[in-house]
C-alpha cells in the first residue's frame, strides 16, 4: 500500500491542474480499492455546499453541476463530524440523500473521509460498492492517509482561486484573492511583486512572462552547450581514475543533454510564453516525476541525474541573467519561498516596499530585520502560489498577516486610506522624539533599541533611543565568508559604542546555531534549537570567544559605555567560566595600554532552566535581560520559525506571563538591572504588561520605539497594574489579547498603535 500511496501522491503533485489531480485520485483510488465508485466533493467557500467535483462510477456529466447543502446527505455528515463514516447500507441511514441524475441508487456500502487542511474541512473523498458490506479497517486507513495528502493540493488550488465559487450558479470574483499568513512586521504595502530565489535551485524558480522568446531560446542553447563542455572536461580530468563502466556515466549525461525531446520541450515552453528558467523547471520536473513513478530502481535513480543536469543548465542561465539589484527599477514587494537576510542585503532598501515569505514565522530573523527597517511583512503564507506572482499587483497587510493578489480598485482605495493614516501617525510620533518615556503619573521607563547593522545607529537616535539593549554581533559575522579578525571586530563594535556614547551599549557575544548559521561554520544537527548554540559554541571555541571579548573591550577605550551579555545560559557553571575569561581578556587589553574599564556583564534569561536559577545568576552578574522570543519558544515547545505551529507561539500565553512575572519577583531585592530585549518589548500591549510587572528597561526595534513611547505617555502606572491584574487571572492566550485590546480601547490608547481602518478592511 505504501508504494501505491507514494505513486498516487507523485502523480497528483505532478498534475497540471486541479481537475487533472482530482481525476487521477478518483481513477487510481477506485482501482486500488476495487471499488465501484470513487468521488470527490469539495466545499464551496461561499455557499458551504458540497459540490461533486470528480467521479468514477457515478454519472461524470454531473461533476461540477450538482451539490449537497451543508446539512444534507452523508457527505455533509462526514464534513460536519470531521471524521470517517463507514456504512454497510447507506440507504437506511437517516442522513442519506439521493442526488438525482448521478446513478447513485445502485450503491449500498459507503465510506467517506474528510479532506482536512489546517483544521478546515475542504471536502470529502467517497468510495462505494453495490454490495452491502463495510469497508475494512485497512481500506479506511488507506483512504484517510490519501485524503491527508490530497488536502495540500486542494488548499493550494483554493488559495490560487482555482476552486473559488464552486457552486453551479456562482459568479467568479476574479480578483482580491486572499492568502493567510502570519504578521511579520506591521504596516501596509501596495505594489508589484518581484519573486526572489536562491541560485541553481530548480524547485523555487518562478514562472515569468518572456519578453524576447528568441533571446531566451538562444540563451538556453548556449547554457546547454556550456554544460556539455563542463561534463567533457570533468570526464577527461578524472578518466584515468575510472573504469570503462564508470566513464560511461558521463556518456549517459551527454545523451540526456543531446535528447532532442527535452530541449525541444523547453523551447516550446519558451515559445508559449514562459522565460527560459521557468520553462526548464517545468520540463525537468515533469521528467523527474515520470522517473519517480517507475518501478525499476535503476530507472528511478535517473531522476537524480536529470535533476543534477537541470541545476547545471540553470546555473549557466543565471550567469547571463541580471543580478538581483538590477531587477528593481521601482519599489516592489519582495516574495520568496524562504527569504533570508543575505537576499535582503542584495536589494537596495529604498526598493523594498514589503516582504512576503512562504516559510518562516513572525519571529524569524527576516521578520525581526523587517521590523527594524519598518517594512510591512507577512510570513508563513504556506498556500501562496509565489512562483506565479512575479510582476503581479499585490497588497501586503502586515497587521493581519494577509496578502491579496490582483486587488480590485475598491480594495486598493481601502488600503490606501490605511497608508495615509499610517503617515499621520508617524507625524504624531515625530513630536515625541525628545520627550521622556514616562506615564501620566510620572513612572519613568527607559526605551533602548536592538541593533545589528551600522545603519541602525542613526535610525535609532532619530527615534529617541536611550541606548542599545542588544547589539547582535552575529550579523557582521553572517555577512562575511570567514570569521572577522579581532581588528575588524574592534572597528565594528566601536561604531556602535561611539554612536551612542555616553549611553550604554549592550553587546551580546556571538549567538549562532539554531536558525542562525554561518556559511563558513556549518552546524548540522537533528534538533538545532536544543543543540550547539549561543554560549555553548563560543565556550567550546575559546579562540572565537576571546578574540571577540578583547575586541569589545578595546572598542570601548575612552568611552566606558560597554556592557557584555551572554546568550543561551542554562547553568551557573557557564557564567562562572565566561566571567573568568572576560576578566582575563580585560587584563590582557589593559596590559596592552588601552584606556578601558571592566565592563558590566549580564546574562540572557531565555531558557526555562535560567528562570528557576535567576537568584543564583543575579549573584554573579550586573544585569539580567529576558529574551522573550526564545523563552516563549522553549516554554511552549514551539519552533518559532515553523509556520505550521505558528498559531501556538504566543508571548501572551499565561505560562509565559507567569514566568516573566516570576523573574521580577525573584530578583526584586537583588540590586541587578532587569530588562526585556525580545520582540514582546516592542509590542505596545506587551510593553504595558512588562512595565506593570516591574521591568524598567525595554529594548526593541527602532520602528517599535515611537509606538511604545506614545502608549506609555498616555497611560498611568495605576492603569497598567490594573490591566496586568486582570489578565493574570486568565487561562487562554487569546483571552489575554482580547482583554488587553478592550482595556486599551477603553483607555483611548489603541488608536496610537495602528490605523483605525485596519479593523474594517475585511
Automatic annotation (TrEMBL):
Q: Which InterPro entries match?
A: GAF, GAF-like_dom_sf, PEP-util_enz_mobile_dom, PEP-utilizing_PTS_enzyme, PEP_util_C, PEP_util_CS, Phosphohistidine_dom_sf, PTS_EI-like
Catalytic reaction list: L-histidyl-[protein] + phosphoenolpyruvate = N(pros)-phospho-L-histidyl-[protein] + pyruvate
Coiled coil, from the record: 408-435
Recite the UniProt keywords alphabetically.
Coiled coil, Cytoplasm, Kinase, Magnesium, Metal-binding, Phosphotransferase system, Sugar transport, Transferase, Transport
The superkingdom listed in its UniProt entry is: Bacteria
Report the cofactors. Answer: Mg(2+)
The molecular function GO annotations come to: phosphoenolpyruvate-protein phosphotransferase activity
Is Transferase among the key words of this record? yes
EC top class, as a word: transferase
Q: Where in the cell is it found?
A: Cytoplasm
- EC number(s) of the enzyme? 2.7.3.9
The keyword Transcription is annotated on this UniProt entry: no
Limits of the GAF domain: 17-164
Question: Which Pfam families does the record match to this protein?
Answer: GAF (PF01590), PEP-utilisers_N (PF05524), PEP-utilizers (PF00391), PEP-utilizers_C (PF02896)
- Protein family according to the UniProt entry: Belongs to the PEP-utilizing enzyme family.
This chain's protein is named phosphoenolpyruvate--protein phosphotransferase
- Native organism is Marinomonas foliarum
Question: What gene codes for this chain?
Answer: ptsP
